[in-house]
Structures are given as structure tokens and as C-alpha cells.
Amino acid sequence: MVCKTAFLYNEDFLKYDFGSWHPFKPYRWISVLDILEKKNVFREGLVDKILSRKASLEELLLVHTEDYIEFVKKTSEKGEGYLDYGDTPARKGVFEGALARVGASIHSIELILEGRYKHTFNPCGGLHHARKSSAAGFCVFNDLAVAARYAQRRYGVKKIAIIDVDGHHGDGTQEIFYEDPTVLTISLHRYGIYPGTGWYTEVGSGEGEGYNINIPFPYPVDDESYLYAFDEIVIPVVEEFRPELIILQYGADSHYSDPLAGVGLTTYGYREVMKRIHELAHRISYDKLMVTGGGGYDLDITARIWSIGFITLADLDVDVSDLHDKINIGSYEARFDARDFINKIKNFLKKYYKNL
């Protein structure tokens, strides 16, 4: 029997450590695994824990430049300074930790496209700020982009959709695929915070025009408004694009109480996002769905969101009521009724998509 869903882990994830003072905590995946094990999800016969492999230098070169890879390697060996302008410290071990995190996303592609699993979850992936030749925003190498290119080059996948629900704009992923019509990138995020990009008029260029979509919320929104954007824009666009593989960046910092982003989602909203993408993958991408983590700077909230997400992804009959927010916050801090704004974006995109 082929298990439906795999949870990928590697102790070297912990080497991706920027220091105790840093908001990015390398051990978040351990908290998720603890919750899942306490709920006995790995005894259901439908899910597995998989020890993931590291990325090779050749695999990193699918996206990143040789000079940049060498810079990261040498700088992290010294363990001094920063890999960017001040957000991403070059501590010893970071290079090896980055190889483990990217490797888990590549391994996910192998598991899915070789038919061993339908879905995978790499909680330590989703490093969407990294560009071809630079680090940014706690992200050293862009595992989403490397995994997509790996799927194309090794397995011949022609069309891939990357959907990013992190609270911050997936600017690195956008930049890498901005002129590429074979990879549809969609980012829903809080606008006006780091990195300051991702307005809805940024739609790609050249042959890639229309294949980069941003849904930027200038103010916090509630679950209902967020899911309205999914139903009115994300799902019909992906349906029309018809990817053979879907990659979901499931960053937890869109939660209403995240200290660095806070789009306005509750745990209930996150669960509904996973349900929608899960169902979409079953309908249009032959079940092929790779999920990663991403941002999330409150440890308890992040662990609960990713645990609920994994259980939903695996379609397990497991009680998650204790993991949800104590009440369905709904419109908590929703100072902005987003529907008119979402409809404005939808109308703007109609020149690219007939389904809208």
C-alpha cells in the first residue's frame, strides 16, 4: 500500500540557526513532530516520517549562481558577518543546514513524481526570499525554486504552480520566475511590510507576463475575506493554468497574532486554505501536492497551524480541536473589508484569465 502523505525531517535542519536572539527558530519542526506523534498520526497507515537527504551543489546550480553558493559556503565556514544586508547571519553550520532544507524539498519532488507518495510536507522549506545570487529575509537558498526546476529538468514536468500564503511577499520566487510562463507564482501577503514588493500590478514580463500574481492586503483581513480571494482568484486561475504539480508555501505568519506579519488569518482559515489546495490538487494535478513551511514567529501558533495543516493534508480522522485558536476570531483586527479590493484585482487579471 502506498502511503498518501510523507513528513520529511533531518537533524541537520537544526544547523540552520541564526542565534538565540534571532526570530527564526530552527527547531519549529520538532514541535510539530511532537504534536503529531502525541496524536499517533503515524500509526494510521496513511502517513510516514521520511529522513530526507541533502541537496548537492549541482542541484543548487539549477537556480543559484556558482559564485553565490561559494560565498555562502566560505562565509558560513568563518561564522562571521551576514549573508545579506543584516537579516541573515552567516553563522557556522548555516550552509549545511541550508543544504538539508533544500534537499528535503528536492526529496519531496522525488517521492511525489516517482509515485511513492501523493503529498509531502517539508516544514523547513519555503525559503521564498532567496534570489539567484543573494540571501534575504532569513532565506539562504530558495528551495521552492530549486524543487520546481528539479521537477522540470529531471522529470519533464511542464507546468508548475507555486502558491504562497506566507505573510510576507514571496519576492525571491517571483524574481526567479518573472519571465517564465511554465511556472505560475501566486502570493497572498500583507503589503507595506518587508520586503515592500508584491503589488497586484506586478504580473511578470516578456513570455512570463500574466504568470505572476500578487494579492497584497494593505490592512489585516479576516478569514472570510482571505478565503474570498482564494475562491475568486487563486482557484480559478490555477484551474485555467492546469499545472501538473502544485507547490504550497504554507508560512504560518499570516496568523492574526504573528509578531512580524499578521495578515489576519486564524487557525480555522489556515485549515480551509489547506482543504482548498488539497481538493484542487486532486482535481487538476493528479494528486501531486508538495507543501513546505515558511515564516512563523510565534512557536506555539506555528506548531499548531502546521500540525492542523498536515493532518488536513493527509485527510486523517484525528481530533484537532485542541490545536485551534480558543475561539474563532473571525474578523479580529480586520479593519479592512477586502472584497472590493479583491474584485479590483480580479478585474485587472481578466485580460490574462478567462475563468475570472
Order of helices and strands: EHEHHHEHEHEEHEHEHH
Q: Which overall shape is indicated by the principal axes computed on the Cα atoms?
A: globular
- Report the span from N to C terminus: 40 Å
- How do the strands of the widest beta sheet line up side by side? 2-1-3-8-7-4-5-6
The total domain count is: 1
Beta-strand residue percentage: 5-15%
Under the CATH scheme, the architecture is 3-Layer(aba) Sandwich
Q: Please state the CA-atom Rg, rounded to the nearest Å.
A: 19 Å
Average pLDDT across residues?
95
Could you please say which CATH topology applies here? Answer: Arginase, Chain A
Number-wise, the strands total 8
- State the name of the first-level CATH class: Alpha Beta
Largest sheet: 8 strands, parallel
Keywords:
alpha/beta, Arginase, Chain A, globular, single chain, 37% helix, 356 residues, 8-stranded parallel sheet
